[in-house]
Specification:
The protein is α+β, with helices and mostly antiparallel strands. Helix content is 45%, strand content 9%.
Length: 307
């Protein structure tokens, strides 16, 4: 989904989507210019983030995954089948506004999403666009291209797209495939990267459903900052089983997040990093969904793969 809702504008090459219906209506006027810098006061608020709709909501609309430095969004009302928008978690207007380490993380996310979209959609080529003329919060559009698609050798023009681009039920299947592919890509990298940070030499004991939750609680959630300390490996184990029970009961990301926030508020002096807690909750849910897909496909578990 695009991070700004379902209303396309008539500026910014038609690729930014406005969160505001009033602006959307204005965009339908034949000669209306949506480049927001024509209103210096409004533009300044968007630049500094004070009126940025993404910053105000604390995340974009229609997010399906949280990566290292960005959110992945998809929507059914899209300009092309398999369209994805990647939105920076950090408010930045230009790429060069990001700190170097954040920029590198964002580009790693770009590479991951590119690989997943290409695999899931079978596109012959991907087009990448960064605009931000109407909402200058850094985001990148991914447009899969197909043999004999509507635009031939030309750029995608969302204003000229023939809707719908998805057959009935097709969007849900592609969205699920993207989420699953991101989780699969995350699987081995997660254990190797975070296992290394935690000083682990053997991460296989964390490969079960419960073990994965233990690892996420320790290496991502970690509200008391104990990662790397002696004896830290079992610090949050007492919470892991309750989280797994929630997941088995069908809990979604919001419910897992609320559970973790309640633990922090009741036992740890409050939720100090809500974005991190949200990230941990989403990782837990994605990991469980992927493990279920592995079981349904009768594929080996991570521990079986490495035994």
């Amino acid at each position: 989904m695009n991070p700004y809702g379902k209303h396309r504008n008539n500026g910014d090459s038609g690729s930014d989507i406005m969160a505001n219906q009033e602006i959307c209506d204005l965009a339908n006027r034949e000669h209306f210019d949506l480049s927001k810098w024509n209103d210096p006061i409004a533009w300044q608020g968007l630049l500094d983030g004070s009126t940025c709709p993404i910053c105000i909501r604390k995340q974009p609309l229609d997010a399906i995954a949280t990566l290292e430095a960005s959110w992945v969004t998809m929507q059914e009302d899209a300009p092309v089948r398999g369209y994805v928008c990647l939105v920076s978690q950090t408010h930045a207007v230009e790429l060069h506004d990001l700190l170097e380490e954040t920029a590198l993380a964002f580009m790693r996310d770009v590479q991951r999403v590119s690989k997943v979209i290409a695999s899931v959609t079978g596109a012959v080529k991907l087009n990448y666009e960064i605009h931000g003329n109407s909402i200058p919060h850094l985001h990148m559009h991914f447009f899969p291209r197909y043999v004999r698609d509507q635009f031939g050798g030309l750029p995608i023009d969302p204003r000229a797209v023939i809707q719908p681009v998805y057959a009935p039920g097709e969007f849900e299947g592609i969205q699920d495939a993207v989420v699953a592919a991101l989780a699969q890509d995350d699987r081995h990298a997660f254990f190797r990267h975070y296992g290394y940070l935690g000083g682990l030499r053997d991460w296989r004991p964390f490969a079960s459903e419960l073990g994965h939750i233990r690892m996420i609680l320790l290496t991502i959630w970690d509200p008391v900052g104990i990662l790397g300390a002696d004896g830290a490996m079992d610090e949050y184990d007492s919470y892991a089983e309750a989280v797994l029970e929630l997941i088995h009961g069908g809990a979604d990301v919001d419910q897992v997040e609320n559970h973790l926030v309640n633990i922090e508020n009741e036992l740890m002096g409050g939720c100090k990093k809500p974005v991190v807690t949200r990230f941990a909750a989403q990782r837990i849910v994605l990991a469980y969904k992927f493990s279920q897909q592995m079981k349904e496909a009768d594929l080996p578990s991570l521990s079986e793969e490495n035994s």
